[in-house]
Amino acid sequence: IDVGTRTAAVAGTLTGGALFITAAGSIAGGNLPGTSVAGSFGLDAVGGNASFDSVLLDTSGNDLPAQISSISAINGTLSIDSDLSASIAGDLALATNAGSITVDGALSLGVRGNVVRSYNGSPANAPGTITATSIFLQAAAIDRPSTINSPGNQKYTSFSGSILVGNGSGATITADAADGFSAGDLTATTAVVVRTFGNAAFLGTVSAPTIAVTSADILVGTSGRIGTAGTQLITLDVDPNANAIFLGGDPDVSGWTLSNAEFGRLTASTIRIRGPAAFEGLPPPVIIDTLDIRGTSPTTGAANSVFITAGGAIRVIGPVVMAGAAAQS
Questions:
Q1: Rg for the chain, CA atoms, rounded
Q2: Angstrom distance (rounded) from CA 102 to CA 203
Q3: Quick one: which of 232, 221, 301, 233 has its CA closest to 264?
Q4: Rounded to an integer, what distance in angstroms lies between the CA atom of residue 272 and that of residue 262?
Q5: I need a surface site. Which of 12, 24, 71, 132 has the fewest CB within 10 A?
Q6: pLDDT digit string (tens) for 141-174?
């Protein structure tokens, strides 16, 4: 269904081949429940506006994983007055190139393939925004640079690849990545929880009362920050598969590393860094090089605490200094 500028009433059940709805002007519909059994669908606002009461689409029963579906707003707006739910056999282009997708209910997407940022093979240069009351996104890998906001929880899961998200806000933001994780600015009213068997990269500011990261390596970029003045607890757990653990200094080695400069980009009343527990044999030692610790908060003056634990040995090879320590630090 290609729409210039008109109103299309869509209701009932849609079955059969591929379904593509493209709004170059304006389209307004009712509920869009149904199944596209032959592999793919497109729900796209390209230079126009599309709105529906609710959307439920399913291609999960087909055997054509190479097919790509799309939910996009390219210089346009896609609005859903209730829930948007889709089960997808192949890849999904979730694209908001200078556009916006607004879901007044829950956004729930289960994707057997990858979630990609491109629309018709063209990468999104201006990511745009996605807004829903809550977000659930599961796929083989997720590449989603949009700003994603929700008053409720956000949950991202990749079962074979990495998770890349842009900026976002929510109540609790959780990411479980089979490979690696990367994010820009994340703000949560309750917690940010990241678990990955690969590298966890933070390129913007992560703000939440509680922040927990489990990873085989960690990167806090030069523009990155983990924690803000209101953060109470940061917990960094080292994945048991990490072959080395280095804290402080400027390590140039493989393994879980957090340099002194990166440690300075952590802000919380309490910081816990925990090496893996000993199961079969001793895990690698935690090696601490030059480490500068702030004893009190520069904004509130409250005492800070840092706990470093290991299942094996802790070796200190450089100066560890807590500046401005209070009696309770």
A1: 23
A2: 26
A3: 221
A4: 15
A5: 12
A6: 999 778 999 999 999 999 999 999 989 999 999 9
CA 189 – CA 200 distance, rounded (Å): 21
Average pLDDT score, the chain: 84
Q: Is the dihedral of CA 298, 299, 302, 307 positive or negative?
A: negative
HSE-CB for 323 with a 13 A CA cutoff: 8
Q: Are 100 and 128 a contacting pair, CB within 8 Å?
A: yes
Sequential DSSP letters for 83-104 = -EEEEESSEEEEE-TT-EEEEE
pLDDT digits (tens, 9 = 90+) for 213-255: 999 999 999 999 999 989 999 999 999 888 889 999 998 888 8
Q: What is the DSSP string of 154-210?
A: EEEEESSS-EEE-SEEEEEEEEEESS-EEES-EEEEEEEEEEESSEEEE-SEEE-SE
Q: Convert the pLDDT of each residue in 167-210 to its tens digit.
A: 999 999 999 999 999 999 999 999 999 999 999 999 999 999 99
Tokens representing 237 are 């757990």
- Rounded distance between C-alpha atoms, residue 289 and residue 259, angstroms: 9
At 19 the three-state DSSP class reads: strand
Q: Residue 37: its pLDDT value, please?
A: 45
> pTM for the whole thing?
0.89
Q: Which helix (H) or strand (E) holds 315?
A: strand 314-316
